[in-house]
Amino acid sequence: MTTICNMGCGSSQNGTTGSETMLTKQDEELIRTSWAEFKNGDVVMDGLHMYYRFFETNPEAKEFFGFAKEGEVNAENNKFRAHVKNVFDIVGGAVDGMDNITEVKEICYDLGVRHKAYGVPSKYFKVVGNSLIYALDRKLHLDSNTKKAWVRLYSIIESEAKRGMAAA
Ligand code: HEM
């Protein structure tokens, strides 16, 4: 599962503790199927809605993002589109790596370490997760089991990222 990280990760010392959330085989199946459907389209254009939602609910968070400070947050903003692609690459990597969840956790831990350096408060991870699931749901109209499965996967990502932030 090497595609998930091309940004200098792999150095975490995150041990064996961390998120206790477990994905069932059914969760994994629902996530894989829905992700395949999401990918079968324009991930970036659909993914922009994650950030539209995030900034709608938390407009003050724009100040953290270079792409939002330098230009309008819309589909014409190249840096915004590049950011969305980066974020969804991580999400896709987490989906592809679900059967090696320890590696996913390490990558998310390192993501948290890097986010500490961006100066973002960890409280935003919750609303970013809600915004991610909003963007998936907007396109796919997720049923409740699929939504719950994504919430569980995101809670692993969130909890490891927060551990990385706390340790950085
Ligand atoms: C699981 C959720 C998240 C994922 C997958 C994610 C992913 C990424 C990725 C891939 C990058 C590119 C640089 C790098 O890899 O370090 C990045 C940058 C960044 N992220 Fe996140 N992120 C998440 C949550 C958040 C949250 C909650 C915030 C809070 C506001 C945030 C703020 C930022 C900022 C400020 C940057 C730098 C971008 C810039 O300077 O314009 N991210 N993120």
From TrEMBL:
Keywords annotated in UniProt = Heme, Iron, Metal-binding, Muscle protein, Oxygen transport, Transport
Task: Recall the GO molecular function terms of this protein's record.
Answer: heme binding; metal ion binding; oxygen binding; oxygen carrier activity
Enumerate the spans annotated as Globin domain: 22-166
Domain of life per record: Eukaryota
Pfam (any one): Globin
Q: Give the SUPFAM superfamilies listed for this entry.
A: Globin-like (SSF46458)
Q: Does the keyword rRNA-binding apply?
A: no
Q: Does Heme count among this protein's keywords?
A: yes
Q: Name the family.
A: Belongs to the globin family.
Q: What is this protein called?
A: Globin
The organism named in the record is: Patella caerulea (Rayed Mediterranean limpet)
